[in-house]
Design brief:
- By secondary structure, the protein is α/β, with parallel strands linked by helices.
- About 40% of the residues lie in helices and about 15% in strands.
- Strands 7-15-8-14-13-9-12-10-11 form a nine-stranded mixed sheet. The chain has an eight-stranded mixed sheet with strand order 18-17-16-25-22-19-21-20.
- It is globular.
- Residues about 1-10, about 15-25, about 30-65, about 85-95, about 140-160, about 170-235, about 480-525 and about 865-905 have low confidence and may be disordered.
């Protein structure tokens, strides 16, 4: 920063500030003046990167209202995503004066007062403004090195603390030395009514134009003591993975003043990540569960606090958000934003779900301006079919000034994903991580009461599986089971029984997967009680084994909520806690559940879970009440729960490692089908085994009952490669509507930058070079002596005729009418392998019961005679037919008379055998020939000619004279100048009467007539010109193909986009010019339910006649997610409203299908409207106790609470939509409905937030 002294002796500095390259004018000191109000200049803070030509970052215009500071508003413009450098639409959004820097020149030089702000049509009337002259005293420090623009800009930083530290230190040094080597006074006087301006420009230093035209991203921070050589090299890839030993060894020298100190020694990948964060770079960290990825997130929070900016931590699951809020609360200034909770949104460190961040980006929330870091936890969740698109949307939509931190489990294509992000955001992504587990794992099979180790330290041990199979064999022999199940079938199911079970319901599947131990299972299979007793005995056997080996606590993963509950309830006589632990559990539960009112404390689920917890047994799945789940999680983290039966959500949503992990089965239902666990899913759950700092090794156990898994299946699951990160990007109506609201932000830009299009977009520069070379090639011109050439038209006719001819030939060969003609001696045309010239042949032997192929004698033009060589360029070639690339059947009227020969009888009778080895090759009469077997599919055409052949001489005697005679006979057929003999007429000779074939035949004959009338027909240079026409056409097709691949039309989802645009036009969300209408603005508010159905429901006034309780009950169909639920008993008004809403969904489904979207109307309605909880929500809104509404349905209590909580968010969305529509009555009704459902246990505060 260069200090500038104004004429009234008030010093200030001009320089860059902020993470997006702002030009800042600020005073250096304050001096008491008689009239300070006249001497203190205004502060100027303008984004140079916004206003300079070529700038790419333009967010919403500054707004004065703080009402929507955090959540944003539908009236705001979304921020411009980073990386959209190639968009040309930005030029239209900036006024000319802002683009060329005139605004700064007017500040310095003076000029007419500007009363109209940029981009506005009119301004305020300030009256007559008097002219005011002034002068500037510009000083240049002696310690400022004379260097080029790039060298001066290289000192600029995108980080706040380093920028200010560097700037103030330089100024301090300059003031201490007191050297002012050069002083220039630039007198700039301006009058409003004078156009003459006297100025004296500085001859040295950086000019104003240089500053304005500088690229703020061209500067990179280099920490002292370490130079980043990679940044100076040309970018070959945006993802950089370079494990630097120098960073690890000199970490504390490189970063002497850390933003956050840790009480333990950091791992190598953590040091690398922190170093890159200090440099202001984006980071991708891939490591196993519990490896310490959260350290990177904590450091980003510390940097944000140090820089006085904000950091955002996003998680895929609400539970993770709540847990991280509790973990970070004591360390940082933390706020929490989820669908139903908003705590301290003004905090510098915000924790939220990814959907909330997406909504903030689309709604242009002002808080986005302050964000420096966005942390994406569990990035591998991008593979989720339903919600994975949210991660891609957010990454694409993030503005340029925000740095990205990605935390993920180990995946095979980390570099590929990071390269996509870097290319999308136009910034380098540093990839780091580790494949080393902090606590090594051992994997065992539990079979017949014993543990068999099958894998240790990522190495499979086949001897362990062999020992288990030996034990299984011995067990069955001892039990005398002659027809027992064979070892070697898949885990958890027999070969036959497993197939049958997959067709049963989900509950039955999970129940049937667990057979009893020993021979007693077969006798008790029909008795459910006996089966569960056997299950309880098996669990008791396992837990006793683990207890003796000190392998508790244990998490047992079952893939069914029902399975978890039954397994836990079956352990009635098991007590694993001491008296002190029982006391701790009782006190904790009493304190946690004390916030519930009396009836809710006695809910069956609450009582049952407390009884289990006192014995050290817990359950955890989505069917539990949120407060019950949190109690289980917290007690498990305290170590008082010894056995936890859980679904796989515990591995994703809770950071609670155990000593041991047990898999009840290795098969799961994924919502569509039963399948084996994927390696990535197994790794995620197995990673919960082993507590860092407590255990030296973690144990993973696979349950086996009557059968053992195959070795290949075990290897695939345990040591197989994790699932690759794959794009689940899909277009949604709400995404399209949000993007259509801003001109410079096109939907095509979003599609291009999706992970699905990454590889295609990556090839664009190469394709552009190829296209440039193609266009620069000299154009070939066909010169015709007859005037303007028509060869292109002739060549198009030729290609079309060839297509018809191929269709006719295929139909002919498939017809049964052709078989009588395919006899010995018939001349045929064989398809050439090179496709350059087809081959003339004669059938020598027809198929027999022992040989289904034809034996043919083929002549090849490989060895043309000298005479033919001499004549190849003469008239005989010129007179030949134009069809070089294929054979065309000639009309019968144009055929020559050809003698038909019957098959000759040899001197001796043949035996019908083939004595030669096929294929048999030779040469005669200057031509190559070949005897070979062909299928009828290789016949291109059947000729009308037959010749006399000697079958015995060709196949049995291999007589050279016979071969020569046959070659000569075939050559004689070409003596009239035609390339091939005429073919059998498909209509007149073969008597084919199929309508489609006859129509094709007529089209083909008409094309031949057109070709004969063309002036090119019979031209002596026809073949030469045809070859040129082919090259010209191929060149045009290549250019067109390249242009198409580089265009928006080539995007994978472009047809889907066009269809959705047509749907939005049809229902009135947008007009013909793609301008979003009021109906579209209403649809933008709908995030909870399907936006089209919700919008149509509002605009059809379906909710106006309903009471608030009925409205919120009907709206539950938008957010309830469970597919199977008992049929609700509804009032007549609710039943009618349900039918109207369902018909609306069917109509919208049919409309989308009409515009070629892959949607089935019935499935669309059933998928987006689930009425299973309408009665439950209706009673809840009327004030019915929670215990009573649970009796109305078979839906678990946790799902009921989740649905009602989401309903509150839906009510807010409908309220905002009603305000947009101007429907005040509906707006008030939504507020009443929201208040009616917000009570008691459903909206009990999270224990993570309030504490216990």
């Amino acid at each position: 920063m260069d200090p500038i002294r104004v004429s009234n002796e008030l010093s200030f500095r001009v320089g860059f500030s902020g993470h997006s390259g702002h030009l800042r004018v600020e005073p250096l000191s304050t001096v008491e003046r008689p009239k300070p109000q006249q001497s203190i200049p205004d502060f100027i803070l303008v984004s140079v990167s916004d206003l300079a030509s070529g700038a790419v970052e333009s967010g919403p215009l500054p707004r004065t209202s703080a009402k929507d500071f955090v959540r944003g508003s539908i009236n705001n413009r979304p921020f411009r995503p980073g990386g959209l450098d190639d968009s040309q639409n930005l030029e239209r959004t900036l006024p000319p004066g802002a683009s060329n820097g005139e605004w700064v020149r007017e500040i310095l030089n003076g000029g007419p007062a500007q009363t109209i702000p940029p981009s506005l049509k009119q301004g305020l009337d300030f009256g007559a403004l008097k002219p005011y002259p002034w002068s500037w005293n510009v000083y240049k420090e002696s310690n400022t090195p004379k260097s080029s623009l790039d060298e001066n800009l290289s000192g600029l930083s995108i980080q706040f603390d380093d920028l200010f530290k560097k700037a103030w230190e330089e100024d301090a040094v300059g003031e201490q030395e007191g050297h002012v080597s050069e002083e220039e006074t630039v007198t700039l006087e301006a009058e409003v009514d004078t156009t003459e301006v006297s100025s004296k420009a500085s001859e040295s230093g950086i000019s104003l134009d240089d500053i304005l035209s500088a690229d703020p991203e061209g500067s990179k921070l280099h920490l002292d003591g370490f130079s980043d050589e990679v940044g100076q090299q040309p970018k070959l890839a945006w993802a950089k993975r370079e494990a630097s030993k120098q960073i690890v060894d000199c970490f504390h020298e490189l970063i002497p003043d850390m933003a956050l100190d840790f009480p333990f020694e950091l791992d190598a990948f953590q040091k690398e990540a922190i170093y890159y964060l200090e440099k202001g770079e984006s980071v991708f960290v891939a490591a196993h569960t519990s490896a310490g990825k959260t350290v990177v997130a904590e450091y980003a929070f510390a940097l944000a606090s140090k820089h006085c900016t904000r950091a955002v931590y996003t998680a895929p699951i609400k539970t993770i958000s709540n847990q991280k809020y509790r973990d970070f609360c004591g360390k940082f200034d933390v706020g929490l934003l989820t669908g139903d909770v908003s705590l301290r949104p003004e905090a510098s460190c915000l924790i939220m779900t990814t959907e909330i961040l997406r909504s903030m980006l689309y709604r242009g929330a002002d808080i986005i301006r302050d964000i420096e870091w966005v942390i994406f936890d569990e990035v591998h969740y991008v593979n989720d079919v339903e919600r994975g698109v949210v991660w891609e949307e957010v990454i694409i939509m993030l503005p340029r000034h925000i740095n990205i931190i990605l935390l993920s489990a180990t995946v095979p294509n980390t570099i590929e994903f990071a390269d996509w992000i870097g290319r999308t955001k136009q910034k380098e992504i540093r990839v780091t991580g580790t494949t080393k587990r902090p606590v090594p794992l051992e994997h065992c099979l539990f079979y017949s009461g014993e543990l068999y180790k099958i894998c240790e330290r990522e190495t499979f041990l086949p001897q362990g599986l062999k020992a288990a199979k030996d034990a299984s064999r011995k067990k069955h022999l001892t039990a005398g089971v002659s027809s027992g199940p064979k070892p070697g079938t898949s885990a958890g199911h027999d070969n036959a029984r497993g197939q049958k079970r997959e067709n049963t319901s989900r509950t039955k599947q999970h129940g049937a997967n667990f057979s009893g131990t020993g021979s007693g299972y077969h006798h008790n299979n029909g008795n459910g009680l006996s089966k569960w007793r056997a299950e309880a005995s098996m669990w008791l056997m396992l837990i006793n084994k683990l207890s003796k080996k000190s392998l508790l606590p244990v998490v047992i993963f079952c893939f069914s909520k029902n399975r978890c509950d039954k397994s836990a309830d079956s352990m009635t006589g098991t007590d694993l806690t001491s008296s002190s632990e029982k006391s701790e559990i009782r006190l904790f539960c009493d304190k946690a559940f004390s916030r519930l009112k009396g009836s809710d404390r006695n809910l069956p689920q609450v009582v049952r879970v407390q009884n289990l917890l006192r014995r050290g047994i817990g359950v955890h799945h989505a069917g539990l009440l949120p407060i019950v789940k949190e109690v289980v999680e917290m007690l498990f983290c305290r170590g008082v729960i010894k056995v936890l039966f859980s679904t796989e959500t515990f591995a994703m949503g809770v950071n609670a490692p155990a000593r041991t992990v047990v898999f009840d089965t290795v098969r799961k239902f994924d919502g569509k089908e039963f399948r084996q666990l994927l390696p990535g899913e197994y790794t995620q759950m197995a990673g919960r085994a082993g507590r860092r700092g407590l255990d030296t090794i973690g144990t993973v156990i696979l349950m086996c009952r009557d059968e053992l898994p195959e070795e290949s299946d075990l290897k695939h699951v345990i040591v197989g490669s994790a699932t690759r990160l794959e794009s689940q990007f899909r277009l949604t109506y709400i995404m399209i509507l949000h993007l259509l609201r801003v001109e410079e932000l096109k939907v095509e830009d979003m599609l291009k930058r999706s992970f699905a299009e990454f590889h295609a977009q990556k090839k664009l520069p190469e394709m552009q070079q190829i296209l440039k070379r193609k266009l620069n090639q000299p154009t070939k011109v066909i010169e015709c002596i007859k005037g303007e050439p028509t060869i292109e038209e002739y060549y198009d006719l030729y290609l079309e005729a060839e297509i018809y001819n191929n269709q006719i030939s295929e139909a002919v060969l498939l017809s049964p009418n052709v078989q009588p003609f395919l006899v010995t001696g018939r001349v045929v045309i064989i398809k050439s392998e090179t496709a350059q010239d087809h081959l003339l042949a004669v059938i020598v032997k027809t198929p027999s019961p022992y040989n289904k192929q034809y034996v043919v004698f083929v002549i090849k033009p490989d060895m043309p005679s000298p005479v033919e060589n001499a004549l190849s360029g003469g008239n005989s070639q010129d007179k030949s037919n134009a069809f070089d690339q294929g054979f065309f059947v000639m009309p019968k009227s144009r055929r020559g008379l050809v003698d038909e020969y019957t098959t000759s009888v040899s001197a001796r009778k043949g035996r019908g055998v083939i004595n030669i080895k096929l294929p048999y090759r030779g040469s005669a009469c200057g031509m190559s020939y070949e005897v070979r077997e062909v299928d009828s599919k290789e016949f291109l055409c059947i000729c009308s000619s037959k010749i006399k052949i000697d079958q015995v001489g060709l196949l049995e005697d291999a007589s050279s004279s016979v071969y020569s005679k046959t070659v000569q006979l075939l050559l004689d057929l070409k003596s009239d100048g035609n390339k091939y003999p005429p073919a059998l007429d498909p209509v007149k000779d073969l008597k084919l009467k199929e309508v489609k074939l006859v129509e094709t035949y007529r089209k083909w004959t008409k094309l031949l007539e057109k070709m004969s009338q063309n002036q090119c027909n019979g031209c002596i240079k026809l073949m030469e010109h045809l070859k040129l026409a082919k090259e010209i056409k191929a060149h045009k097709e290549e250019v067109c193909a390249l242009q198409f691949q580089m265009s928006d039309e080539a995007l994978q989802q472009m047809p889907d986009f066009q269809g959705r645009i047509d749907v939005l036009k049809e229902i009135g969300c947008i007009d013909e010019d793609l301008v979003v209408q009021m109906k579209g603005r209403v649809a933008c508010e709908m995030n909870s339910g399907e936006e089209l159905i919700c919008t149509e429901c509002l605009f059809e006034n379906q909710l106006d006649e309903l009471e608030p309780e009925e409205v919120v009950a009907l709206m539950s169909a938008f957010v309830f997610q469970q597919k199977n639920a008992s049929e609700p008993s509804l009032t007549r008004r609710l039943s009618d409203a349900r039918n109207r809403l369902y018909k609306t969904a069917i109509r919208l489904g049919e409309l989308q299908a009409q515009f070629n979207l892959p949607i089935n109307p019935e499935e669309y309605a059933q998928e987006n409207l689930k009425f299973g909880l309408v009665e439950v929500v209706y009673e809840w809104a009327k004030g019915t106790p929670f215990a009573d509404i649970c009796e109305l349905t078979d839906v678990p209590e946790g799902m009921i609470v989740r649905t009602i909580v989401r309903l509150d968010e839906t009510c807010r969305e409908f309220k905002n939509s009603a305000a947009i529509m101007g429907n005040s009555a509906l707006c008030k009704k939504m507020e009443i409905a929201s208040n009616a459902i917000k009570r008691d246990i459903v909206f009990a505060a999270s224990l993570y937030i309030t504490g216990v």
